[in-house]
């Protein structure tokens, strides 16, 4: 099938290349994405009013697509905040601390607890939920603070966030951008997340033990006191001190509630938005119950305060994502809804057209496709968000999948894994602040320790993906 590329296609492609170049130089891409939307609007509508209106309409489109993800993250953070203030989080992880008797057990124990916690609460709230409780335990058995930060970081912001199988924020973004069902991207990501997680954590632990034996280990401590991560603003009103028995009861009930959610997901075959809604609704109920118990007669007002803190966090994280997603959504279904004209009859969207043209003119194979998606995902993560760039890997994965006639889900998942591991909080210093702050270590030292394991992990995962495409 021959596709006639127009100036619209070439301008869109040029902006993608320009955005990638800016990301490599660690510059913000929001302004360029807005200029890209405006330029595409001028070409498509040939009117100033249509192109200007297209900017706002594309923002609305992107916000509607992202709203579920923004809400679930905000609600989880709000709930996490009240659990931290009441001390229920300590009760939730306390039984697990008895298994940490050696530095090795502490490293893997903290990592696995962080993994499970992050799947339900997202990594940044998860760091605050468990870090303050587990760090003193790890220190007592000889695990350095930087080692604890590595474990929380790699398992939480790496493994848990790159898969995001419970909240499903990351796969929703990439799947939508690639025009695929969320379930397909999640299934395709499982072997990649496992390989990346195993290679990276095993190497990080081995390098840590080797350097400790050689005497070359640097702990990177920067402060004696440790705060909580930036999961919200200042605390709400003073909570009533809960008895140990009540905190234990609530901790067990909360754990059982989320376990019931997971069981319901499998029993009722809930995926994507339905699964997210179940988790979100459960979190809201927990937030209300715990707040009413903890704040008594001020519970009504404090519930609102916690929600405000959660939404402030959610929109602060996703604010930069909306303009970027708005631009990349134009590569597919959003274009026809926003501009209605500009593409030739028979066109299947800008990205699809580019993919077909690419297949007809450039020799592409599985190895080139997989390597390109890894590099693209890693580059988009250089802004330190992880989420702001994964809307880009979907269209690019789609282009390559069209070119090689297979592997759309695997390539999309590979780009997602690379973007989250680099930008979600394992390599970029300013994205490492939550884990570094709670452990009192330098985020730059933490990034340095993570660098080699993560890069090797990405290389191995890319090779595996070549055989899966």
UniProtKB/TrEMBL annotation:
<feature type="transmembrane region" description="Helical">
    <location>
        <begin position="188"/>
        <end position="208"/>
    </location>
</feature>
<feature type="transmembrane region" description="Helical">
    <location>
        <begin position="250"/>
        <end position="268"/>
    </location>
</feature>
<feature type="transmembrane region" description="Helical">
    <location>
        <begin position="313"/>
        <end position="331"/>
    </location>
</feature>
<feature type="transmembrane region" description="Helical">
    <location>
        <begin position="66"/>
        <end position="84"/>
    </location>
</feature>
<feature type="transmembrane region" description="Helical">
    <location>
        <begin position="427"/>
        <end position="444"/>
    </location>
</feature>
<keyword id="KW-1133">Transmembrane helix</keyword>
<feature type="transmembrane region" description="Helical">
    <location>
        <begin position="105"/>
        <end position="123"/>
    </location>
</feature>
<feature type="transmembrane region" description="Helical">
    <location>
        <begin position="451"/>
        <end position="468"/>
    </location>
</feature>
<keyword id="KW-0812">Transmembrane</keyword>
<keyword id="KW-0472">Membrane</keyword>
<feature type="transmembrane region" description="Helical">
    <location>
        <begin position="275"/>
        <end position="293"/>
    </location>
</feature>
<feature type="transmembrane region" description="Helical">
    <location>
        <begin position="6"/>
        <end position="24"/>
    </location>
</feature>
<feature type="transmembrane region" description="Helical">
    <location>
        <begin position="31"/>
        <end position="60"/>
    </location>
</feature>
<protein>
    <recommendedName>
        <fullName>Transporter</fullName>
    </recommendedName>
</protein>
């Amino acid at each position: 099938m021959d596709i006639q590329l127009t100036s619209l296609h070439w301008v869109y492609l040029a902006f993608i290349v320009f955005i990638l170049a800016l990301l490599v130089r660690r510059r913000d891409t929001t302004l360029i994405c807005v200029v890209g939307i405006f330029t595409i609007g001028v070409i498509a509508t040939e009117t100033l009013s249509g192109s200007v209106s297209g900017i706002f309409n594309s923002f609305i489109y992107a916000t509607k697509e992202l709203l579920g993800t923004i809400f679930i993250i905000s609600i989880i953070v709000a709930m996490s905040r009240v659990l931290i203030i009441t001390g229920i989080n300590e009760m939730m992880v306390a039984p697990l601390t008895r298994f940490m008797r050696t530095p090795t057990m502490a490293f893997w124990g903290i990592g696995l607890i962080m993994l499970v916690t992050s799947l339900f609460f997202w990594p940044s709230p998860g760091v605050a939920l468990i870090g303050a409780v587990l760090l003193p335990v790890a220190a007592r058995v000889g695990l350095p603070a930087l080692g604890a930060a590595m474990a929380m970081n790699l398992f939480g912001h790496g493994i848990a966030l790159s898969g995001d199988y419970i909240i499903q924020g990351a796969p929703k973004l990439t799947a939508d951008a690639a025009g695929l069902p969320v379930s397909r991207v999640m299934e395709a990501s499982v072997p990649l997340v496992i390989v990346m997680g195993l290679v990276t954590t095993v190497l990080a632990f081995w390098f840590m033990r080797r350097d400790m034996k050689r005497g070359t280990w640097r702990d990177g401590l920067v402060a004696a006191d440790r705060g909580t991560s930036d999961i919200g603003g200042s605390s709400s009103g003073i909570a009533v001190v809960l008895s140990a028995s009540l905190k234990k009861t609530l901790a067990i009930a909360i754990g059982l509630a989320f376990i019931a959610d997971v069981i319901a997901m499998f029993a009722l075959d809930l995926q994507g938005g339905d699964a997210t809604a179940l988790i979100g609704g459960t979190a809201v109920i927990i937030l209300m119950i715990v707040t009413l118990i903890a704040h008594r007669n001020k519970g009504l007002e404090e519930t609102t305060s916690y929600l405000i803190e959660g939404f402030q966090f959610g929109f602060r994280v996703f604010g930069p994502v909306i303009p970027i997603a708005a631009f990349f959504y134009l590569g597919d279904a959003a274009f026809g809804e926003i501009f209605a004209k500009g593409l030739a009859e028979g066109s299947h969207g800008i990205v699809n057209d580019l993919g077909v043209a690419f297949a007809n003119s450039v020799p592409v194979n599985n190895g080139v496709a997989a390597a390109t998606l890894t590099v693209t995902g890693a580059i988009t993560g250089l802004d330190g968000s992880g989420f702001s760039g994964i809307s880009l890997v979907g269209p690019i994965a789609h282009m390559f999948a069209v070119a090689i006639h297979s592997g759309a889900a695997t390539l999309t998942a590979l780009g997602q894994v690379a973007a989250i591991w680099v930008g979600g909080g394992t390599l970029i210093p300013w994205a490492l602040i939550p884990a570094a702050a709670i452990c009192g270590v330098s985020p730059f030292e933490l990034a340095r320790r993570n660098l080699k394991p993560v890069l090797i992990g990405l290389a191995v995962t890319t090779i595996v993906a070549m055989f899966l495409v």
